[in-house]
Fold these 2 entries.
Entry 1:
Amino acid sequence: MTSDQEIEELRDQLRHHEYLYYVEDAPELTDAQYDALMNRLKRLEEKHPELVTADSPSQRVGGKPKDGFVKMPHSRPMLSLDNAYNEEELRAWDQRVRDALPSTEAVRYVCELKLDGLSLALQYGAGSDKGEAAHLVRGLTRGDGSIGEDVTSNVRTIRSVPLSISASKLKAAGLPQSFEVRGEVVLPQAAFAKLNEEREAAGQAPAANPRNAAAGTIRTLEPNIVAQRRLDFYAYFLLKDGEFLLPQQSTALESLKTSGFRVNKYAKALKSIDEVVKFIADAEPLRDTLGYEIDGVVIKVDATAQQRRLGFTGKAPRWAIAYKFAARAGITKLEGVLFQVGRTGKVTPVAALAPVLIGGTTVSRATLHNADEIARLGVRIGDFVQVERGGDVIPKIVEVVEDKAHPRGTEEIVFPKNCPVCASELQRIEGEVDWRCVNNSCPARVREELLHWSARGVMNIEGLGDAMVAQLLGQSAELGGEVVTEEGAPVVVRRPLIHTIGDLYRLKREDLLGLERVGEKTADALLEQIKRSKEGGLARVLLGLGIRFVGERTAQLLAQHFGSMDELMLAASQDAEKASEALEAVNEVGPKVAQAIVEFFAVEKNKDLVKDLAGLGLEMTAEKRMTTSTLEGLTFVLTGTLPNLTRESAKEKIESAGGRVSGSVSKKTSYVVAGEEAGSKLEKANSLGVTVLDEAGLLELLG
Ligand SMILES: NC(=O)c1ccc[n+]([C@@H]2O[C@H](COP(=O)([O-])OP(=O)(O)OC[C@H]3O[C@@H](n4cnc5c(N)ncnc54)[C@H](O)[C@@H]3O)[C@@H](O)[C@H]2O)c1
Ligand SMILES: [Zn+2]
């Protein structure tokens, strides 16, 4: 192949993977694999500068605005960053910077963690209230760097994005009323793990990493979904009319902090490249402690005047560089595959690996996700595999390695036809990738149900973790979280103390004292915790039952709507049409969730469990709340002209209180706010029995 053929081929490949990454939010390559292709292209282009074209992926930011969003130009291009992969490259960059500036000038650098999310541009300006405060007017994604997608309504749901900044704060921060903030939106690892749990429970493929999940979230067309995901925003650039507002990056960060933005606390201004090298060395071990992903350190020239003189290359500033941490990956041997059964019965293949040290942690397990993933990788037992680990995300197998030192394995991985624990036949629901054990009494499922029930954020039963649950189920405490033999079956060592969640509430002190490593103190503390959990209330019980698609927020909305388990069960056990109507009257509950609830309560065993729990004295009521102090979960439609508020400011008030404004009236609309000359929307509201408010009513609701 000639160089120009190879260059063209690399460009095609890169474009394809950029599309998957930036537009679909579903990459097929790891970043390291992508970077390797890009670096190969850059090296070839350096050798053949005559072949460089403006549309080469090396020359332009890879995104592309997605359909469905309004596209808006940026005040100044949102660029990518050049990378350094080692100290030598970093020092070479420092040299280039200093060479380009007069030798009499000192250069200060600001080091910031390279947050692994996606960048947003937030524009602030005067609001319709004619006051002096600054209001969030628009939020744009990077898009292709010149044109972004308008995701304002989604951005409004991010709690760390101030919707308005008071005049006094602006003054303290030295900010004008209109300005622009750029920063990174990230999905914290805990929120990512939860999202993937929900996706898996819903039979969807898990998101590849928090960055892609964040990108997918900020570009969904439903703000209430975004609101549930707990995205975070860290500010790092401050602009006005397309220029940096302050003379230094370090003062810009200070000013952002003062005005109420979240600024990453690790940012630091440094006097020399040696100090930068030290900063990077200190930053890398932080990775496991932050709770969000970082993939390196961004180093920026502090002085705006120097930045201006350094300027830009095609797609990146010369005054900044991203030092990329090495991918946390390693090669090891796949020794076997375990099949684990989850709470919903989903069977997950787990790779048993020859232990390997990756980024300071010994890794001996990696997820293989599902049968399709095994097929995609084409992996066999005995193969050497590339394993990657990020944050506290479960390690995953990236690819099979094959060369002289790493010969292929021979043993085919056979996905079981029967549950490895209870032997009942596995089933695959049409359109889903996962195989499931549908036996409701499967011991593996009961174990997961108990763990879910006791988990933090559910019933919060401290002391009821892996090892204790295993013991209560008659398995050895030693095996803790890995209660499986090589065949995947739990090791039963004694008669189980419990078989259902209800049995937890029947446990006696003597029972517990008979277990391994359980003294009086432990036993009493656990019993106290179990007793206390009875008071958790309806929402927690609903969440604890593990109904498909019913996460924390949906459980809360259901509890508030129905007020008691009896009411909810009554609604769910009517004939199909009435049941789904009654359930879908709850905000954010659609046909899929409604059906899952109906199905759950149609199972005798589940009804028995609820009855049992009620008999045991668990609190199963909630305060019915149709009006809340915040408007979270409520949908509004605005129509007609209000006496004082403009349409826009009414919308802003509702949204900043957590409510949602929609354009059309349906039976799910919570309130229609009507002013002078309201037309068909008001009629529709009246015919559907939707509550109609006037401006005063709205203001009262807003408190
Ligand atoms: N896996 C794939 O198929 C695939 C495809 C395309 C791109 N990628 C990955 O995407 C990246 C390249 O894309 P890129 O152009 O977004 O570059 P980049 O992510 O390497 O660097 C630029 C970005 O860094 C971010 N950033 C984080 N913290 C920052 C801070 N403190 N200050 C300034 N910026 C900060 C901003 O979002 C900015 O846009 C590479 O890591 C590449 O591996 C992967
Ligand atoms: Zn089973």
Entry 2:
Amino acid sequence: MRPFVFVNLAMSADGKLSTIERRQIKISGNDDFSRVDMIKSDADAIMVGIGTVLADNPSLTVKSPDNIAKRKNKGLDQNPLRIVIDSNAKTPPDADILHKGEGPRIIAVSDKAPQEKIEALNEYADIFVGGEEKVDLETLMEALSEYGVKTLMVEGGGTLIWSLFKSGLVDEIYTCVGNCIIGGENAPTPVDGEGFIKEDEFPKLELLSLKKIDDGALMRWKVVKDKKH
Ligand SMILES: NC(=O)C1=CN([C@@H]2O[C@H](COP(=O)(O)OP(=O)(O)OC[C@H]3O[C@@H](n4cnc5c(N)ncnc54)[C@H](OP(=O)(O)O)[C@@H]3O)[C@@H](O)[C@H]2O)C=CC1
Ligand SMILES: Nc1nc(O)c(N)c(N[C@@H]2O[C@H](COP(=O)(O)O)[C@@H](O)[C@H]2O)n1
């Protein structure tokens, strides 16, 4: 058993998540930020990789007071369970994700994470340990399911999203295409990592919806399971 996993990302019209400096930038507009806040608020958990924590220092909190109130009325924490994928326990103990907003956090580390760093982070978050070098995402998903997580939103970055696709762990992806060009051959893209080589390995997608949002476009894709072309 594993949660339903959906990825949400914003990219430029030329397919970049950020600049070559890998700093946090605004790609989508206000309507898209409202949409993201809503789907985040409806999710049981939200996940990012350590690359995103170090680059963006996100809090991953629900922002809209209405969305917070709806969660509270349902007896939920203000924010979904926040999860960082971080083999070496490099999450800074003063990171916003550990301090802003109420609600549980999990730092998922591998067997090689130094014990003293685990202990420091354990003051603010539960620690999942799994995987020899990198975090074992499949085992983590099973653990999250046992924890009661039915829907998991993944906010990036491209390295984590690659691993999730490689392991067949993505069910849907929302792609917001902003009206700008970023460029740079080393700028991050939605799916980085090693990349698929053979066409029959490519995850196949079905377009569920396509609409204009702000001055860009929003696509919602379903990952087609076990379909080869
Ligand atoms: N526009 C958008 O929507 C978004 C943009 N971004 C941008 O993306 C960039 C960050 O992305 P990126 O650098 O790819 O980092 P990621 O956030 O994808 O984190 C990747 C890191 O996670 C760790 N990790 C541990 N286990 C695994 C595993 N099994 N699979 C994959 N990764 C694992 C690795 O580091 P280690 O081995 O040290 O643990 C790895 O380098 C930033 O520039 C950020 O601004 C990010 C999110 C959304
Ligand atoms: N939807 C969206 N649009 C953009 O333009 C973005 N740059 C991002 N980035 C993601 O949002 C996170 C910010 O989280 P907080 O506001 O700090 O809670 C950031 O880390 C990226 O994951 N997303």
